[in-house]
Write a structure and sequence with these properties.
This protein is α/β, with parallel strands linked by helices. The protein has eight helices and 13 strands.
Length: 286
């Protein structure tokens, strides 16, 4: 992709940092974030999307808006939930209205694979919302909002499943497990088989985003790894690579289900299959 004017929200986040680096050399890139990024050749705009968007600092015309910024809603308080709604839903609304006025051609929104809820089989894009956590609810509500703007520009909704890679904070699954195993902490797992997950390495996630932006059609796409691993499997890989014995506490809850993304549709639409398996990805992270 070349010679496009692109606005990225959340450019200092995990996915955002990689995406900014991938786009900045051949495009005019602007990034909205709560903190200023360090990359050159990028116009950084400090803005909390939970507050009123100051559009006077944004370009009057834009080709593509990529909305990555989100609040993970780690707290259960009313204050935390109101903040999550402000950023995940109202922040999305503000960027949609900006994109409309700035004559954007494409709006890409990153949702989450967790909107499908936990189930036995891999989730497909046409599956219904079935989650019961507040974060997934705010992201799905934002998806419904984004779809109201299909007459204004091409809509791409991306649903990532546990993206991981170098630079990710240890509040996320794979780096958190690495930290726990390094520190000889006990890992709570259900059993050796469930839940199964489909983590995607960051470079594969970025390639899916870049390829999707080249298509001029409305899309909902899963972004997941092409192999499935239980949490136990992931811990065993980490332990082997660190040469550490993993300490487990097995819970054995028979109601525990998987969180898996079916990649058939994404792979067909984009002619792309994720290339990095979990062991290779964790080696790069380590």
């Amino acid at each position: 992709m070349k010679n496009k004017k692109i606005l990225i929200s959340g450019g200092t986040g995990f996915i955002g940092t990689y995406l900014v680096n991938a786009l900045k050399e051949n495009n005019e890139v602007y990034s909205i974030s709560r903190s200023k990024g360090s990359q050159n050749n990028v116009t950084w705009i400090q803005q909390d999307l939970g507050e009123e968007l100051d559009t006077s600092r944004l370009p009057s015309e834009i080709d593509i808006v990529i909305h990555l910024a989100m609040d993970p809603l780690r707290g259960e308080s009313t204050k935390s939930k109101l903040k999550g709604i402000s950023i995940n839903f109202l922040g999305t609304y503000q960027l949609l209205e900006y994109a409309k006025k700035a004559s954007a051609k494409t709006f890409l929104f990153t949702s989450t694979g967790s909107i499908y809820g936990n189930k036995e089989n891999p989730s497909k894009e046409e599956d219904k919302f079935d989650a019961n956590d507040f974060y997934s609810f705010t992201k799905y509500a934002a998806e419904l909002l984004v779809n109201q703007y299909k007459e204004n520009f091409t809509i791409i909704i991306l649903r990532p499943f546990h993206p991981y890679g170098p630079g990710q904070k240890d509040s996320f699954l794979v780096p958190r497990l690495i930290k726990n195993i390094r520190n000889n902490e006990t890992i709570n797992v259900n059993n050796k088989e469930t839940p199964k997950l489909s983590p995607i390495y960051i470079e594969d996630a970025i390639n899916i985003i870049l390829k999707s932006l080249k298509l001029n059609e409305n899309l909902v796409l899963n972004a997941a790894g092409n192999k499935f691993y239980s949490v136990y499997d992931i811990c065993e890989i980490i332990g082997r690579l660190l040469n550490k014995k993993v300490n487990y506490n097995f819970i054995n809850d028979k109601n525990t289900k998987n969180l898996l993304g079916d990649m058939e549709y994404t792979s067909t639409k984009l002619s792309y299959i994720p290339k990095t398996n979990l062991e290779e990805g964790i080696k790069k992270l380590l």
